[in-house]
Amino acid sequence: MGGDPREAPDGTTARRGLLLLVFASVAVAFAAADTYVVVLALPEMMGTAKIPISELQRAAPIISGFLLGYVAMLPLIGRIADLRGRVPVLVMSLAVFAVGSLITALAYDLPSMVTGRFLQGVGGGGLVPATLALVADIYPAERRGLPLGIVSGVQELGSVLGPLFGALVLAFAPWQYIFAINLAVGVVLALAIRAVAGGHHPESTPRPRGLPDLIGLLAAVVATVAAAIAMTRPGELQRDLTWGQLFIPYTGDGRWLTPIGVIAIGAGLVLLLRCLFARRPLVDVRAWLRHLVEADLVGALLLAVALGGVILAFATADPEVQVFSEQGPWYLLGAALATVAFLMHLRRAERPLIPRGAITDRPAWGSLLVSFFIGSALIAALIDIPIFARTTIYRDSQLLSALVLVRFLVALPVGAVIGGYLTRRWSAGLVTAVGMVAAAAGFLLMTRWDENALEHPTANVALVLAGFGFGLALAPVNAALLASTADAVHGVASALVVVARMIGMLVGISALTTIGVRWFYQANLDCLDDHPGKTGYCGTQAALAQEHTVFFGAAGCALAAAVLALWLFRGAQTRGMDTRELLRAAG
Asked: Which of 85, 325, 487, 559 is deepest in the core (most CB within 10 A)?
C-alpha cells in the first residue's frame, strides 16, 4: 500500500487495500474454523497417536494446544504488526499456519500433533490483530464500522463452520486431509497477499538484488521431504533392503535418531544458518529477531505465561465435574505470579509490549471487559445448542446436532454487517447494547424449550435472534477500541480484545457448564422422587434442566455486556457526523 490508503489520489491503492482486506478476512475465517475443526476428527487422531478412546482426556492438548498458541502469542504478534507492518505479519502468520498444518497432517504421536496444532494457533491468531489494524489503516474512524462488521462476521462464521468442515472432509477422506487442505489454503493466501501488496506498501523491507538463496531453498526442500518421510515411514521404503536402512535407529526406537531423521535435522540447521547469514535469505530471520526484541519479547513471554496458565486451568478441566482441572489452582497461581511480574515489567521497561497510555481511555479498556462477557455468552451458543439437539431429537447423529447451529450461523454475519453499518449513525455503546439484549432474549426463549422444541419452527426465532444479536455487537466493540487508541498501537490493542473474548469463552463454558451439571443432578433426584423407576424420563428432564441453566446464565452474561457497553463506550467517536454536526464543526 503506497502511503495512507485513506489519502490516495487515485483508486489503485484503495482497490489494492480492499483486495488485501478480502484475502485477510478469508484467512481469518479459515484460521478460526481450525479452533474446533478437530472435534469430530478427535477419535481418529487418537487412534493414530495410539491413545485409547476411553482416555479421551489425554487428547485434550490437541485442542488446548491450538488455543494456547492462538491466545498466548496474540499480543506479541499484534505489537509486531504495529512495528513492522500489517502485510509482513499477515504473510508470516499464514506461513506459520501452513507449517503447523503440515506437521499436524504428518503427525504420528501426541507430541507431534500438539506441536502442529500450537503452530497453527500461533499463525491463525496472528491474522486477527493484523487484519483489524489493516481496517483501521484503510478506513477513517467514521467509515470503519461496516468493514469491521464483515471481518468480525467471517471470524465467528469460521468458528461455527469448523466442525462442519471437519465432518465434510471426514465423510470422504482420512483426518489428515483436513490439515492438507489447510496447508494448501495457507500457502495460496500468503502468496496472494504478497502478490497484491507487491513492493508498494510502506512495510516492505528493501531486499538486495540478485538471485534468491538457492542453497537455503535446497535445504528447505531436503528438510521438508526428509522430515515427511521420517514422520510417515512409508511401508514400501521400510521393507526395501537398501532404503529400509534409513529407518534403523542409531539408538532407542525414535524416528529422529535414524539416518533419515538426521538428514532432516541437518538440512533444517543449514536452512536456519542461511536464513541468519545469507545475503538474500528465504526468510529474513535477523529482521524478525530485531522486531521481537523491539516488541518487548520479555513482556510478551510473561503475558504468555499468565494467559497460558488461565487457558490450561480451564481448557483441561472436565466441565461435568469441575470448573478447572485438578492442577488448575497451580496453573492459576502461576498465572497470577506472571501477571504481577508482567505489570511490574510494564512500569519499568523502556519500550513495553503495551505502550504506556495505550488503553487508558475508558472505551479502550471497556471494550476488553465487554468482549470478555460477550465471549462468555457466545460459547454457550456454540457448545450447548448442539448438545441440546443431541440430548433431544438427534440422539444418534452428532452431525445433525451440529447442523442446528446453521440457523444461528446464518443470522450472525448478517447482524455483524448491519451492526457495522449502524455504528456509522449511532454510538457503539447503543448498538452493542441492542445486540446483546437481543442475544439475551434469544437465550431466555431457549430456557423455555422442551424436548420437542427443535421440531417446531418457533425454535428458529430464538436461534436467529441470538445469532443476529451477537453479530450486531461484534463490530461496535472493535470500532470503540480502534477509535479510542492511537494508530501506532492498533495491532496490540486489537490482539488484547480478541484475547479478552477467548478468555471469556474458556471461563464462561467451564463456569456455566459446572453450574448446569449441579442442576442436572438435583433435577434428576427431584424427578426420581416424583416418578420412581422412570430413569430414562428423569434423565431427559434433568438434561433439559442443565441446558436451561446454561442458557439462563448466558443471558445474564449478555445483559452484563449490554449494560457495560452503554456505560463504558461513552465518548468513543465511532460514528460519522450528520449535516447539523458538520455545519457546527465548520463554524
From this structure: 85
